[in-house]
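Each letter names a residue; the fold follows as tokens. Both lines appear below:
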Amino acid sequence: MQHEIDEAEAEEAAAEGGDDVSAGNADEQPAGQSEEAGAEEAAQQIEKLAADLKAKEERVLRLQADFENFRRRTGKEKEELSAVVTQGILKDMLPLLDNFERAMAAEKKDAEAFQKGVEMIYTQLQEVLKKNGLERIETQGKKFDPNYHQAVMRVQDEEHEDDDIAQELQKGYMVKGRVIRPSMVQVVAN
């Protein structure tokens, strides 16, 4: 746009310089005709610049509309993908729900069978969660790391070094390398 304005100014300056030359040759061309020609050229240049400006404004509006459509479309795709992932996880958990219903319907007299059934459901739940990317954060024999652990208590223990994890109070978990809940731990401070 600036380039077109510069060109228009250069042409205008050349036209003014040409008017001076033609004014010196008044015998060849009347002064009124050269002024009319210069005004006509300027009007044409203005029309051309106005048309270019209008075209660029329309292009900007089209680009803004395209961007808005793109933003809406990607938002919708993100929601659909989230729904598909949620459906997959819930589908994997349906057998767990079935097993819990069976366990609750079992006779209350057989406590050992009930205990075994609950253990099987727990194992099945761990497998489903692991299949969907859940990993347990290990604390046994590890040093305290604030990226993975949350220290809730400091204890003295001569058998361990400073910043060793003395005890895990609550398990922590990650999903595909990202911590979703840090492990709550006791940390040695001698």
User: Anything to note?
Assistant: Helices lie at 2-24, 31-105, 111-131.
